[in-house]
Structures are given as structure tokens and as C-alpha cells.
Amino acid sequence: MNKFAIMTLCLAGSLPLAATAQETARTTFGPAAGDREFSLSGTGSSDRKFDSGNFGASGELGWYQDRHFVLGIRQSVNYGSIKGESLKDDFWNGSTRGYMNYHFGETRLRPFLGGSLGFIYGDGVKNSAFAGLEGGAKYYVLPKTYLLGRVEYQWFFNRSSDASDAFKDGAWAYTVGMGYNF
Fold it and tell me: What is the pLDDT of residues 153-177, one digit of tens each?
């Protein structure tokens, strides 16, 4: 075999590797500064002792300040049916809140920590303000599409002076869903 044929075979054989390396280098998972995010999730919550609870849906829209820090708004609607808790067995409630989260890392799995502040209202709750601490993770299944898991601890108050005392009487909220960056 001549040198030209050997060289051609070597170059032709390395082309798929070079194309794969370029594609891998171009594939970045997660948001860029200025991206937005939208997610739909299923939610659930329970009281502090896990004695009663409800389920619902949540949607959120956020704006990335950089690749790690997001500010946004979240809306949840919940339905519950608790026997023996009150005269009314079925109830609806909702919550609207602002949130901020900081995401760690640059890989497909992005753990995050953050907080929220908003209002809860409806049949099954006392209309009030609440604050929350949250943590969770996003796993990017595609460069801009992720699966989401989040746990929040929320405490409720009517005046800002009541917020610190209300922490011990809070509730847990759990969320599993999916979203995308655009």
C-alpha cells in the first residue's frame, strides 16, 4: 500500500472522532445568562407532623441572571380532601410567590438552594403571607430540558413581626416535574 492510501485511510478514520469531539464540545447543558425557564410540576404538601396533606399543580417562570442564579415567579393550585378535619371535607387553595435559587455546578445534574416569599389563599388555608426555604436538583436530559425535584419548608404569618415565631409551625411542600430553558 502506498503512503497516500495509508494517509487517506488514517484521515478518513479520524473524521468521525473529530466530528464527535466537536459535537461534545458544543453541547452545553443548562441555561446561559439571560435565559428564561418554564416548568410544570406536580406538587404535594403536608403538615409538620405529616398527618394530613393535599396535591396539586405548579408552574413557574424564571429569568437567569447568570448561569447559576435565577429569579422567578411560581403559581400553585392545590386540592385536598381531609375527612374529620372540619365541616368542609373538600377544599381548594393556591399560592403565588417569588423565588430565587442558586444552582451549583456545570454538569447535567444541578443541585440548588434558595428561598421564596409569597401569599397562600383559598378554602383550606388561612389567607396569609409565607416565606420558604427550598432545595432540590435539576437533571438535564437534553441541553435545555430538565427533570426537577424540589422540597420546600414554608412558614406562614400575617405580619412581618410574626415570621420568626411561625417558623416552628411550618409545612413541607414537595414538587416533581419537568421544564426547559429558552
Answer: 999 988 766 666 677 788 888 899 9
CB 34 within 8 A of CB 70: no
Segment 79-116, tens digit of pLDDT: 887 755 554 577 899 999 999 999 999 999 999 999 99
As given in the structure block, the three cell numbers for residue 58 are: 405548579
Nearest Cα to Cα of residue 38 among 73, 78, 76 = 73
Please count the structural domains in the chain. Answer: 1
Cα–Cα dist 23/62, whole Å: 28
Q: Which domain holds residue 140?
A: 36-181
Q: What is the 3-state secondary structure (H, E, C) of 132-179?
A: EEEEEEEEEEECCEEEEEEEEEEEEECCHHHHHHHHHHCEEEEEEEEE
Sort residue 30 into left (φ over 0), alpha (ψ -120 to 50) or beta. Answer: left
Torsion, Cα of 116, 138, 61, 72 (10° steps): 30
